[in-house]
Amino acid sequence: MELPENVKCNPDPVYVEKLRSVMAKNGGYCPCRLQRIPENICICKEFQEQIADPDFKGYCHCRLYCKE
User: Fold this and answer.
1) What is the DSSP letter of 3?
2) H/E element, 18
3) pLDDT digits (tens, 9 = 90+) for 18-66
4) How many domains are contained in the chain?
5) Is the CB of residue 31 less than 8 Å from the CB of residue 40?
6) Per the domain annotation, does 37 fall within a domain?
7) Residue range of the domain that includes 48
8) Does residue 2 sit within a domain?
9) What is the band of 1 on the pLDDT scale with cuts at 50, 70, 90?
């Protein structure tokens, strides 16, 4: 999924690398979700819905992405 202009990665490169490393090992699933279902593949369905909400500003559940 291509990120909208107003969605950015967490500014902490160490944190981002750690999360991406975990996701590379677990098939792309959000490391904060226990269930291995399609809705939990990064960018998870929950954050996709939050991105679509024009009033939402903030981080996704695992804090990898932020909508400004």
Assistant:
1) P
2) helix 13-25
3) 999 999 999 999 988 889 999 999 999 999 999 999 999 999 999 999 9
4) 1
5) no
6) yes
7) 7-67
8) no
9) low
